[in-house]
Amino acid sequence: MLTAKDIMSGNPVTVSPSTDVATAARIMLEHHFNGLPVVDDAGTLVGIITQSDCISQQGSLKIPSYFTILDSFIPLPSMEDMEGEIAKMTAATVGGLMTKDVVSVTLETTIEEVANLMVDRRYHTLPVLDGARLVGVIGKEDLLRVIARGGKTGGA
């Protein structure tokens, strides 16, 4: 059975939280990556920045809807969500734009589990960890290579 270590791209290209957003976007374009792991000075995975994160900066701010109860205005989405959206739209560095709660896989994660994460949760890039150390990345193209070789990604 194939696992993450069999299909991952090793020695992943990474960026730091202090990398500017334009540089991260250029790296993704040059290498045809959907996302980049973000690591701190010690090499620890602290986030991921994706093409969608970068594109979201070009969107418009969604003004929250309100409803009134006893002459008080109550916003439907939380103000915290709106503040987070504003922070992402104005971020100059990867640290302000990245997703911090990163879903990752281990070297022993099966290819079926990887495929399910990508399909069910719509992830295009999954960091591969060996303990706390980033050792690789799996992208959609890595799974397509398995399929192109006649490999199987589904359950039995």
Straight-line distance between termini:
11 Å
Query: What string, H for helix and E for strand, traces the elements in order?
Result: HEHEEHEEHHEHEEH
Total count of helical runs of at least 4 residues: 7
Structural domain count: 1
Largest sheet, if any?
A: 4 strands, mixed
Mean pLDDT: 83
**How would the global form be characterised?**
globular
CATH architecture type: Roll
Structural summary, described in words:
The chain is an alpha+beta fold. It has a single domain, classed as CBS-domain. The protein is built from seven helices and eight strands; from the N terminus they run H-E-H-E-E-H-E-E-H-H-E-H-E-E-H. Strands 1-8-7-6 form a four-stranded mixed beta sheet. The chain has a two-stranded antiparallel sheet with strand order 2-3. A two-stranded antiparallel ribbon has the order 4-5. It is globular and about 60 Å long. The termini are close together. The model has no long low-confidence stretch (mean pLDDT 83).
Brief account:
By secondary structure, the chain is an alpha+beta fold. It is 35% helix and 23% strand.
Write the layout of secondary structure elements.
Blueprint (H helix, E strand, L loop, with lengths): L3 H4 L1 E2 L10 H11 L3 E5 L5 E6 H6 L9 E4 L2 E4 L3 H11 L4 H4 L7 E2 L4 H10 L4 E6 L2 E7 H9 L8
Parallel strand pairs: 6-7
Antiparallel strand pairs: 1-8, 2-3, 4-5, 7-8
